[in-house]
Amino acid sequence: MPYVPPGSHLLKGAIDCHVHCAPHLNGRSVNVFEAVRQAAAAGMKAIGIMCNFQNTSGFAALANDELGHLGCHAFGGVIMQPTAGGVTLEVAKAAIGYGYGPGTGARFVSLPTHHTRYIAEREGRSPAFLETTFQVPENNVVPDVVRAIMDLCAEKDVVFDCGHVSGREAVALAEEAKKRGVTRIRTHGSRYTTDQIKAIVALGGYVELSFFILTHATQVGLTHVDEEKHKISSASTIQDFAPRIRAAGDRCILSSDAGVFLLPPPAEAFREYLLLVQSEGFSDAELRRMTSTNPAALFGID
């Protein structure tokens, strides 16, 4: 009998909505085609391709044209980093329409990741760099350009992703997005308080918790968006994550955030992560909800 790794059944029908298999300044463990093939071989339903440099909907559309027969769907979107054009309505519009025909454009539009004030401060960036970063001011008034992007996401029925902002900012963004009719809201709650997570969920948002921040890759300085190597201090443990997962409840999503060469390929990293979460007492049914039902509902995957 061939060896079947523990937890392999947890990948059947799963969706990993946070896979970094696009080209990068750091080495990758897989390219886009390999990521789709490996996910399909594991029985996964879909992967979401993310990139800190550019819109990935074109990569996803190409992968689906070439490998769609394998049964694993790829989808992409844009993180509005400076390299992708920044936080502008034009960037969001182009991403949503960019693919190989209707319905193949971006499934999500995200505020910056490593170009937010919150992350830049954690990375120890220079004052000059900090001045260029995105933030929601302390008065929680969402910038006009972001409101316009939210309106577009509501109109086109795509995910508005809050990017890597602080918990306070994510709550403010989720409140504004809901006011503007956005029904698909993603936040990244690895460092949010449980109260902030509960507030986001109450507003109809989904809270994603990713494997990367639990791994040894956090111990190494990496080039996330430019040639400077940075790492974010105080890596988390699964014991830190468990209360956050429970606070998110029916609106929690688990993802690998894998693809960097220091970690196993995304499908394998995802399996390891699910076993880690399972060790904290979460059932197969709960894992299925967090890896299949919720991401399918958020991203509109049949």
Describe the structure.
It comes from Falsiroseomonas algicola. This is Amidohydrolase family protein. It contains 11 helices and 9 strands. The protein is α/β, with parallel strands linked by helices and 302 residues long. The protein has one domain: TIM Barrel (Alpha-Beta Barrel), CATH 3.20.20. A 6-stranded parallel beta sheet has the order 4-5-6-7-8-9.
Q: Flag low-confidence runs.
A: none
- Main beta-sheet strand count, sense and barrel state: 6 strands, parallel
Estimate the strand proportion.
Answer: 5-15%
**CATH-assigned fold name:** TIM Barrel
Provide the CATH top-level class. Alpha Beta
Mean pLDDT: 96
Structural class: alpha/beta
User: SSE order in H/E notation?
Assistant: EHEHEEHEHHHEHEHEHEHH
Counting DSSP E segments of at least 2 residues, the number of strands comes to: 9
Distance between the termini: 34 Å
Using the 3D structure, state the CATH architecture.
Alpha-Beta Barrel
Shape: globular
Helix content: 25-40%
Spatial order of the strands forming the largest sheet: 4-5-6-7-8-9
Protein name: Amidohydrolase family protein
InterPro entries: DUF6282 (IPR046249), Metal_Hydrolase (IPR032466)
Organism: Falsiroseomonas algicola
Pfam family, one: DUF6282
